[in-house]
Amino acid sequence: MMSEQGRVTPGTAAPAEERSCSWMNIWQFLIIALVIKAAFMTICLVLPFCHSSDQPRALLQQQFSEWECDSAVPQGTARGWTCCPKGWRRFQRSCYFLSLDMMNWAESEQNCTEMGSQLVVINSKAEQAFLSEQTEKPPKRENFYIGLFAEKVGQWQWVDRTPYNVTSAFWQKGEPSGSTDENCTVMHALEKTLNNWNDVRSDLMQHRICEAAAVTV
Prior knowledge:
By secondary structure, the chain is of the alpha+beta class. The strands form 2 sheets. Strands 3, 4, 5, 6, 7, 8, 9 and 10 form an 8-stranded mixed β-sheet that branches. Strands 1-2-11 form a 3-stranded antiparallel β-sheet. It is built from 4 helices and 11 strands, in the order ααββββαβαββββββ.
């Protein structure tokens, strides 16, 4: 309603103007959010490995600046490269690090974790065969910690909670010994058969095998 002087009567047109401004603010916010999202997606398409949201894999990528990649798809296609940090060995979808230095079991587990990996979890005969072959390569080393341990005697478990299956284990003859203080597992590189696991004390200094998922770009 207009007053005699032509001014807006309080409580009439002003609320409509305020509502209009509120809707304008909402649309501005939505447009800005869409612009930010589009920019982020563009960056991810340009930068390698940006699509990964898995924390251990992201940590692995932060630790290493040099990578070695193999084509995982038929030649001539633009996508499908499988990559491992330089110096690691790849088998199927995993990357493996065989250490030159020696640590006890707890230190070995921590070292693998800090690199975005874990002490190796062996899931198949093919994987065991591959790793056994790798441990025999120079320089000569004797034992490698793997990610199998026992909190109680005979109760073996993998570091990633993969169920332990005794029928798919690769113990040396007479192992595990059942000793109360031998609660960790090494792969014995000098054993020339696939059955080369041995239970040992966790305080012994050994080499280690770390495993991480390969990165695909």
